[in-house]
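A sample follows:
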Amino acid sequence: MTRYKRPDKKDALSIVNAAKKEMEFTLSLEVTDSSGPTIIKNIYECFRMLGDALLVLRGIESQDHIEPIKELLELNINTSRPTGAIGNLRILRHNISYYGYSPKREEVEDVIAIAKDCFKPLLGEVTKRINNHKNS
């Protein structure tokens, strides 16, 4: 079920800026057994926020995490790693949050690599779309 509301360019930009700040902070954290789950959840959340910003820009309020990630994955941009890897983060985050899964160091490092390869290009594209959006 999708809820529609007024498109909001200002709110979309605010979400993007929050995602950028959170990603910068998260990537500054030292990788340890204790920090791993938080790093993965934060990185996933930053990607989800970018997708959510695109939905907010169109006046759509998502009811779950699937819609924002799908929105993000539909962007046609070049990254050094396929953006489809972001979809897999949702499952990993879900297992951490709801089943107490403890990620291996290699998994945390891989998620960090995904963030480093994909976040900046996606951030740039989302920001460009928001700034070029009419009707706000």
